[in-house]
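Deliverable D2.4 — example input (C-alpha cells):
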C-alpha cells in the first residue's frame, strides 16, 4: 500500500463552524473595504450595468499604429475605433487622469526661421509642430499674437519665426481626420504685448477656429465652470457620434468670468488647473523639487483638476534638453512634482526640443500604469461589494 493510500481521511467534524467563521470574516473584510477603499463613479456604474466606454480595457498596447506617430489609425469615419492615444487600456481614463507631453512654444522652431540670440532667446525646437504630432506628442503649447490686425502664432515678436494659425489648424484637422483615435490638449498663451503687436481679442481667435473647415467640430466644450467638474473619458469623447478630439485651454487673456466671458470651447486654464514655476536657467534649478515643483499659478491643490509641470530652461538650450529630456530625468521630475503636490497626477508637462529624448515613451508607459491602477482599484472594490452582498444574502437566508 502506498503512503498516500495508508493515510486516514481527515476528520471534518468542525466544517460548518469553520465555514461560518470564514464567511463572517469575509463579510467584515468586505465592509472594511467598502468603507475605506477608493471607489469612483465608473465602478458604481459597472455594478449597475452602465459603462462609460465602449471598450473593455486590455493589458496590451494598441497594435493598430501605423508606426509613424505612436497613434492608432483605424479609418477616418471612426466606425471601427480601437484604442485611445496609442493605447487600448486608457480609453477609460477621464481627461483629467491622462498625461500629455507638450512641446513648449511649439511654433518657435529652427526650421521655421526663429533666430538664436545668445543669452536672450532662441528656437524652442528644431522641427515644426506638425512633426511633433507625427512623433506621438498629444499636447501643444502655443502663443497667439495679434500682428498688423492678423492673428498669428508668435513668440514675443511679431513676424519673427511666426506661423499662420489657419495653416496650422488646417494641418491639425487633416492629422486628426486620419487618426480618429487620437486626442489633443492645447495650452494657449494669449500674448497681449508682443513687439510690433496689439492685444488679442479672444473672439477673433474663436472666429478663426470656426473658419477652419472641420476644426471647431472637433473641439470639446465643457459647459460646467466649476473647478472640480467631472471630465469625460477619452473613450467617451472619441467614440461619441459627434467625435471630439481637441480640448483647448488658454491663459493670460480673459478669465472667462461674467465680466470677462469667453467663447464656448476656449476654457480658462487656471479655472480648471494649476501650473508649476517656469523660469529656470539651469538643470540644477529644475532638480530642486521643493521650489521647481511649487505651484505658482492656478487653483489650490484641493480645488484643481489638472496639473501642469514645466521641464525646460530659459533661454532654450539644446544641450540642456539632451539631459532633461531623458527617461530618467522626466520620470523623476513627474514623481517629484506629484509628491510635492499631495501626490496629484501630472496631466501635462512642457518640454523644449521635442525631437530629443524619451518624452513620448515615458508618457505612453505612465498612462498605461495609470489605467492599470484604476482597473485594479475597480476590481478590488467590485470584489468587496460582491463579497458583502453574498454575505448579506446568506445571512438573510439563515435567518429565514
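Example output (designed residues):
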Amino acid at each position: 500500500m502506498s503512503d498516500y493510500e495508508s493515510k486516514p481521511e481527515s476528520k471534518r467534524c468542525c466544517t460548518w463552524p469553520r465555514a461560518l467563521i470564514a464567511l463572517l470574516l469575509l463579510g467584515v473584510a468586505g465592509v472594511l473595504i467598502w468603507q475605506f477603499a477608493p471607489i469612483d463613479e465608473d465602478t458604481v456604474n459597472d455594478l449597475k450595468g452602465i459603462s462609460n466606454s465602449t471598450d473593455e480595457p486590455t493589458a496590451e498596447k494598441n497594435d493598430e499604429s501605423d508606426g509613424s506617430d505612436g497613434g492608432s489609425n483605424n479609418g477616418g469615419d471612426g466606425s471601427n475605433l480601437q484604442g485611445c492615444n496609442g493605447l487600448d487600456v486608457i480609453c477609460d481614463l477621464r481627461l483629467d487622469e491622462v498625461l500629455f507631453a507638450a512641446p513648449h512654444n511649439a511654433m518657435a522652431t529652427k526650421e521655421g526661421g526663429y533666430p538664436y540670440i545668445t543669452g536672450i532667446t532662441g528656437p524652442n525646437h528644431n522641427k515644426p509642430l506638425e512633426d511633433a504630432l507625427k512623433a506621438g506628442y498629444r499636447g501643444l503649447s502655443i502663443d497667439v499674437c495679434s500682428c498688423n490686425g492678423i492673428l498669428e502664432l508668435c513668440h514675443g515678436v511679431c513676424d519673427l519665426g511666426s506661423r499662420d494659425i489657419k495653416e496650422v489648424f488646417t494641418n491639425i484637422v487633416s492629422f486628426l481626420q486620419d487618426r480618429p483615435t487620437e486626442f489633443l490638449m492645447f495650452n494657449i498663451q494669449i500674448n497681449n504685448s508682443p513687439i510690433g503687436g496689439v492685444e488679442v481679442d479672444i473672439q477673433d481667435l474663436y472666429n478663426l477656429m470656426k473658419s477652419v473647415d472641420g476644426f471647431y467640430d472637433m473641439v470639446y466644450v465643457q459647459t460646467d465652470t466649476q473647478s472640480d467638474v467631472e471630465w469625460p473619458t477619452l473613450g467617451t469623447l472619441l467614440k461619441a457620434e459627434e467625435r471630439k478630439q481637441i480640448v483647448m485651454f488658454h491663459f493670460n487673456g480673459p478669465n472667462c468670468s461674467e465680466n470677462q466671458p469667453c467663447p464656448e470651447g476656449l476654457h480658462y486654464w487656471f479655472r480648471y488647473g494649476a501650473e508649476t514655476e517656469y523660469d529656470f536657467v539651469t538643470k540644477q534649478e529644475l532638480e530642486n523639487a521643493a521650489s521647481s515643483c511649487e505651484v505658482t499659478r492656478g487653483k489650490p491643490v484641493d480645488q484643481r483638476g489638472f496639473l501642469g509641470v514645466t521641464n525646460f530652461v530659459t533661454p532654450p538650450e539644446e544641450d540642456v534638453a539632451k539631459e532633461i529630456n531623458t527617461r530618467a530625468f522626466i520620470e523623476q521630475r513627474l514623481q517629484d512634482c506629484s509628491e510635492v503636490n499631495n501626490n496629484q497626477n501630472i496631466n501635462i508637462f512642457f518640454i523644449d526640443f521635442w525631437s530629443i529624448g524619451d518624452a513620448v515613451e515615458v508618457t505612453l508607459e505612465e498612462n498605461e500604469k495609470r489605467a492599470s491602477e484604476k482597473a485594479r482599484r475597480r476590481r478590488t472594490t467590485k470584489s468587496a461589494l460582491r463579497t458583502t452582498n453574498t454575505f448579506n444574502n446568506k445571512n438573510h437566508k439563515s435567518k429565514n
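The chain has one domain: 36-64+82-384.
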